[in-house]
Design brief:
Elements (H helix, E strand, L loop, with lengths): L4 H4 L8 H6 L6 H5 L3 E3 L2 E3 L13 H14 L13 H9 L3 E6 L2 H16 L7 E8 L7 H5 L6 E6 L2 H10 L8 H14 L3 H11 L4 H4 L1
Helix pairs in contact: 4-5
Amino acid sequence: MGGTIGFYLKVQHPQSLLDAIEIQPQIDPISFASMVTDVDGVDVLASPDEPFVAPIDVARLESVMDVVRSLYDFVILDLPTVFDKSSLISLAQADSGFLVTTAELPSLHLTRKALQMLQQLGFDRDRLRVIVNRLNRKDGLDGNDLGKMFSAGVYATLPNDYFSLHRVVTRGEPLTGDCELVRALEGLAGKIAGVTTAEKKKTSILFGSSPALSQI
């Protein structure tokens, strides 16, 4: 409820996820379709302009997720910290949960605690995956080294490409080019969707400039 995706993508829409949750008696596909904004072929329902800190109605949140699940092949939820109640509710319904951490010791420590907590709550270990972001290879660490800290291994690593990300955020443009970060993100998307590099190239030729998620 206080995310920054809308800011990064320069999404300007009068309605947000909060409006979807508050619709009486519950949201329907037609109402939801009027709330999203198309960004390069991806429908985005951003957070409210002002951070929302009050408790969220669990039943209404689940109702929104049920509608969204019926409309799309892929649904990505940008959740708050895993220790938040709304995150636990969402993870319980998700096919896969990705815990994003950095290689700094405090972040790794919290990630290990989060994994332990989720497993104690009964979450299937196979549905919990760790992604290490902003990994600086000059430090001599890789996913195998970091994976030893967790009962689950490291699913993917993303390199620390500060200048590319700074340009993306300041301009509000998609990340493009043949840099290491682009290749890592494409590899991650293909891994999640179960698509190989060769299949992605073939599909790209067939579909041309179709939205990325429709290709994978």
